[in-house]
C-alpha cells in the first residue's frame, strides 16, 4: 500500500460545548442477574493514540454492589458479549505517523470528539465494516482515511451537542475546511443513512423524518413486529424513501417493552414495567438520546444493595465484599481455564454458567458495554414506544403465518390478509422463530435454521406488587435474597424499588432460570404469597409490618405466543457468530432480520434491538440501490399506478382513509366496487402506501357507517373476510372495473368537451 505524506488534517474550530456523560442516557432491559462494573466506554486496552484520548472524567469507574447470582450452573440471563467488532486498521507506516502527529498537533476538541465517537461504537483510528461497505474512502488506510475519521467524529459530536435539532449538511460544512467538502458529504451521508445522527423523536426531527429524503421511490417494505427494532426501522425506511406497512400480532406496540398502570380503589397508582425496565449505561446509547429529547428525568439506581439470607437475616457487608472479591478471582481463573481447554481440544465447549461468564475480560472495560449509571425512567419505558409508534402505518391484530419470497418480491400472510411488497423485515423474537410460528417459503437456509436452534432463549419473569405505602424505606433501589434450594436460586433473587419514579409504592421481584419456568406453572396467588413471605421474613424482625398489597401482577413471558421467552443468550454449542448468522438476509435481498437476537454486540437489550433496526434499514437501502441499477422496465407499472391514482382523485365515496370506486355499468347494491385504503396518515404524505380490495357496493356503504379507521379495518377483515392487497395483487375482475371506469369517465369528458365546443360555436 503506497504511503504519502499526510496533508494537514481538516481541523475544525471549537464546536459547541460537548455533551457530558450525565446528559446522554442509555436504555436496556434488566435481563442480567449479576451487577457489572459500570465504567466509561473507553477501552482500557489502549493503543498509544487511545491513551492520548483518556481523561480523568472518562477513565474512572464506579463499582456496584453485586446482587446474588440466582443459578450460576444453568444458563441464566445473558452476559454481554465480549467479542470485538471487525475493525479495519491502517496497516502501513502512515498509521503510526498519523498517530504521533495527532498526539502533538490535534487540539483537545478533536480528542473530545473522538471520545464521543468511541462511546457510540466507532474505533479510534480505523473504519467499521459498515463504512468499508459504504466506500467512504477510496482506499483503506492513509491520509484520506485519517481525515475522514476526523470529519466523521466532528459531525457526530456536533449533532450530539444538540440532539433536539436537525443537523444540516451546510451546518456541518461551516466548521470544516472547504478542501474537505467531499469528505463532509460522504461522512454526513453515511451517518444520516445509518442512523447515527438526526434520529429520534424531538419535534423537528420527527417532522423531517416523516417525509422521504428525496423523490426517488425505492419500493415497499413489510415490517413484521412493532417492537423497538420494527418501529425504529420503519421510521428510518420512510425517511429513506420506502413505503412501509407494519404487521403486529398484539393490539399494542412495544413487544417485550410493556408498561402497565397499576392502581387501587383508594387512588394509589404506579407505572410498572413488565418487560425491559432498567436503563443500563447512560453514555453513548442511542436510546439515551430519546430520553434527552423528551426531557425525561433519570433516577440513578443507587449502589446500595442489601443482601438477605433465606431466613431474612442480612448478610454481613464485609462478608459480602470478600465473597465478591473471591468471585472475581475465581472468574479470572475460570476464563483462563476455559480458553486453554478450547485451544487444546477444538471441539470442547463449556456451559456459560459453568465457565462463570467466560467471555468477560476481568477488571477491564467492555467495548460493547454502554458505560455510565443504571437509571430508571419515570412513567415507564413505554414512553419511548408510544413516541416511536406515532403516525406509523401499524396493522394491529395481524398475526403473521407465512412469508413467501422470490425474485419478484414478497407476500406476507397475516390473519387472513395478504400483504405484498418488495422486501420484508422480520423482527419477531427468537422464541417465535424457534417455535416455527412463521412458515417461510422457500424454507430458510440450513445455516440460519441451525443458528436459530443453537442460540438460547431465556426466561425472566416479574411479580409487580403495589402497596399502600413504602414500608422498606426510600434509601435503596435494590435488594437481593438468597434461597436454600440450589435449583430455585432464581426465585425472587432480586427486588427493585420503583417508589421514587413510578408514582406509588411499587416493588418488583425478579425470577429467572429454571425457577422462572416453574413460576409459570404456579398460580399468581401462590407466587404473590411467596413474595410476601420473603418480605415478612426480612422486615417483621425489624418491627416493620408488611401491609396487604393494593394490586399484584405476575408476568408469563414464556407462555406469551408473541415471544415465548424474554431474551437471547449464547447457549452450549453456540457462539457469538450465530447472532451474525441470524442477522443475515436471505432470498437475494428479499427477507431481512432485526431484533436483539441479531445483535452480537448488544444481545438481550433494548438498545440492541434499536440499533439492529437502524442497521437493517441501511442494509435494505443498500440492496434497493443496488437493485435499482439493474435494467428493469418499470414503465407499465408506473403508468398503471398513475392511472389508478387519477381515478381516485374523485372517488364515488370517501370516508376516513377509505375511498371507493363503483362500477358505472351497474347501480345495484350487490355490484362489485373497488376499495382503496390509505395507510399511515401523516407519515406517508410524500409517497403514500395504498392497499386495495374488491367488495360489494353494499359493504362499502356499511363501512362508511362504522366509526374510525381501526374499526373499519376490523370490520373489513373479521366481518367481511376481505384481504387487502397491493396494486400488483389486484385480480382481473378489478382490472375490468378499472377499465370500465376509465372508459366511462373518458366518454364523459369527451361529451363535456363536445358540449363546451358546441356552446362556443353557438355563442360565436
From TrEMBL:
**Locations of Pro residues compositional bias?**
1-20, 67-77
Q: Does the keyword section mention Transmembrane helix? A: no
Tell me which UniProt keywords the record has, alphabetically.
Chromatin regulator
Q: Which domain of life is it from?
A: Eukaryota
Bias kind Polar residues: ranges: 29-44
In this chain the SWIRM domain maps to 107-208
Q: Which Pfam families match?
A: Amino_oxidase (PF01593), SWIRM (PF04433)
> What InterPro entries does its record include?
Amino_oxidase, FAD/NAD-bd_sf, Flavin_monoamine_oxidase, Homeodomain-like_sf, SWIRM, WH-like_DNA-bd_sf
Any keyword Chloroplast? no
**Membrane-crossing residue ranges in chain numbering:** none
Disordered, as annotated region: 1-81
Q: Which family does it belong to?
A: Belongs to the flavin monoamine oxidase family.
Q: What is this protein called?
A: Lysine-specific histone demethylase 1 1
Q: Which organism is it from?
A: Stylosanthes scabra
Amino acid at each position: 500500500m503506497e504511503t504519502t505524506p499526510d496533508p494537514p488534517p481538516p481541523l475544525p474550530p471549537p464546536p459547541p460545548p460537548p455533551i457530558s456523560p450525565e446528559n446522554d442516557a442509555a436504555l436496556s432491559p434488566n435481563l442480567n442477574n449479576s451487577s457489572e462494573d459500570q465504567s466509561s466506554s473507553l477501552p482500557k486496552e489502549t493503543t498509544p493514540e487511545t491513551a492520548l484520548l483518556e481523561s480523568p472524567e472518562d477513565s474512572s469507574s464506579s463499582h456496584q454492589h453485586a446482587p446474588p447470582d440466582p443459578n450460576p450452573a444453568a444458563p441464566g440471563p445473558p452476559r454481554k458479549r465480549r467479542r470485538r467488532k471487525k475493525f479495519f486498521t491502517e496497516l502501513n507506516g502512515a498509521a503510526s505517523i498519523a498517530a504521533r502527529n495527532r498526539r502533538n498537533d490535534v487540539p483537545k476538541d478533536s480528542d473530545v470528539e473522538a471520545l464521543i465517537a468511541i462511546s457510540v461504537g466507532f474505533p479510534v483510528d480505523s473504519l467499521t465494516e459498515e463504512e468499508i461497505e459504504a466506500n467512504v474512502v477510496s482506499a483503506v488506510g492513509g491520509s484520506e482515511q485519517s481525515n475522514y475519521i476526523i470529519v466523521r467524529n466532528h459531525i457526530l459530536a456536533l449533532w450530539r451537542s444538540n440532539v433536539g435539532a436537525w443537523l444540516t449538511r451546510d451546518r456541518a460544512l461551516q466548521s470544516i475546511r472547504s478542501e474537505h467538502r467531499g469528505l463532509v458529504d460522504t461522512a454526513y451521508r453515511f451517518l444520516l443513512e445509518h442512523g447515527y445522527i438526526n434520529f429520534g423523536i424531538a419535534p423537528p426531527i420527527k417532522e423531517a423524518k416523516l417525509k422521504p429524503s428525496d423523490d426517488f421511490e425505492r419500493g415497499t417494505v413489510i415490517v413484521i413486529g412493532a417492537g423497538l427494532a420494527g418501529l425504529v426501522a420503519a421510521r428510518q425506511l420512510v425517511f429513506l424513501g420506502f413505503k412501509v406497512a407494519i404487521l403486529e400480532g398484539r393490539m399494542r406496540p412495544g413487544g417485550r417493552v410493556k408498561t402497565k398502570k397499576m392502581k387501587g380503589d383508594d387512588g394509589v397508582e404506579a407505572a410498572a414495567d413488565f418487560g425491559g425496565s432498567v436503563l443500563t449505561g447512560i453514555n453513548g446509547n442511542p436510546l439515551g438520546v430519546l430520553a434527552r429529547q423528551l426531557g425525561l428525568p433519570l433516577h440513578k439506581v443507587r449502589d446500595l444493595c442489601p443482601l438477605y439470607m433465606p431466613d431474612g437475616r442480612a448478610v454481613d457487608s464485609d462478608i459480602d465484599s470478600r465473597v465478591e472479591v473471591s468471585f472475581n478471582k475465581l472468574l479470572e481463573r475460570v476464563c483462563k481455564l476455559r480458553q486453554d481447554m478450547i485451544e487444546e481440544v477444538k471441539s470442547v465447549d463449556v456451559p456459560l454458567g459453568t465457565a462463570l461468564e467466560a467471555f468477560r475480560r476481568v477488571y477491564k472495560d467492555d467495548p460493547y458495554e454502554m458505560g455510565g449509571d443504571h437509571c430508571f425512567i419515570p412513567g415507564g419505558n413505554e414512553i419511548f414506544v408510544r413516541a416511536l409508534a406515532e403516525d406509523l402505518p401499524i396493522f394491529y391484530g395481524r398475526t403473521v403465518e407465512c412469508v413467501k419470497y422470490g425474485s419478484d418480491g414478497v407476500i406476507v400472510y397475516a390473519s387472513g390478509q395478504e400483504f405484498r411488497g418488495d422486501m420484508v423485515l422480520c423482527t419477531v423474537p427468537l422464541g417465535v422463530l424457534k417455535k416455527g410460528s412463521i412458515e417461510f417459503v422457500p424454507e430458510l437456509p440450513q445455516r440460519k435454521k441451525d443458528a436459530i436452534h443453537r442460540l438460547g432463549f431465556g426466561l425472566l419473569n416479574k411479580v409487580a406488587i403495589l402497596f399502600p405505602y413504602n414500608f422498606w424505606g426510600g434509601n435503596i433501589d435494590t435488594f437481593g435474597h438468597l434461597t436454600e434450594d440450589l435449583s430455585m436460586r432464581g426465585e425472587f433473587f432480586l427486588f427493585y424499588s420503583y417508589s421514587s419514579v413510578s408514582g406509588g409504592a411499587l416493588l418488583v421481584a425478579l425470577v429467572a432460570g429454571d425457577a422462572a419456568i416453574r413460576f409459570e406453572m404456579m398460580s399468581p396467588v401462590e407466587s404473590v404469597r411467596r413474595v410476601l413471605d420473603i418480605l415478612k421474613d426480612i422486615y417483621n424482625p425489624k418491627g416493620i409490618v408488611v401491609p396487604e398489597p393494593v394490586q399484584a401482577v405476575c408476568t408469563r413471558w414464556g407462555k406469551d405466543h408473541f415471544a415465548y421467552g424474554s431474551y437471547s443468550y449464547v447457549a452450549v454449542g453456540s457462539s457469538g457468530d450465530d447472532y451474525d448468522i441470524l442477522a443475515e438476509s436471505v432470498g437475494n435481498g428479499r427477507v431481512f432480520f432485526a431484533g436483539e437476537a441479531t445483535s452480537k454486540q448488544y444481545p438481550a437489550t433494548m438498545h440492541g434491538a434499536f440499533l439492529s433496526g437502524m442497521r437493517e434499514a441501511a442494509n435494505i437501502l443498500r440492496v434497493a440501490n443496488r437493485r435499482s441499477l439493474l435494467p428493469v422496465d418499470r414503465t407499465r407499472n408506473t403508468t398503471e399506478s398513475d392511472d389508478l391514482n387519477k381515478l381516485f382523485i374523485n372517488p364515488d365515496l370517501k370516508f376516513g382513509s377509505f375511498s371507493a370506486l363503483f362500477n358505472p355499468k351497474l347501480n345495484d347494491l350487490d355490484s362489485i366496487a373497488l376499495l382503496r385504503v390509505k395507510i399511515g396518515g401523516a407519515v406517508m404524505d410524500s409517497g403514500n402506501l395504498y392497499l386495495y380490495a374488491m367488495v360489494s357496493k353494499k359493504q362499502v356503504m356499511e363501512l362508511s357507517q362504522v366509526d374510525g379507521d381501526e374499526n373499519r379495518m376490523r370490520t373489513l377483515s373479521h366481518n367481511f373476510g376481505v384481504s387487502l392487497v397491493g396494486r400488483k395483487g389486484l385480480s382481473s375482475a378489478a382490472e375490468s372495473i378499472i377499465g370500465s371506469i376509465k372508459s366511462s369517465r373518458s366518454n364523459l369528458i369527451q361529451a363535456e368537451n363536445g358540449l363546451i365546443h358546441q356552446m362556443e360555436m353557438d355563442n360565436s
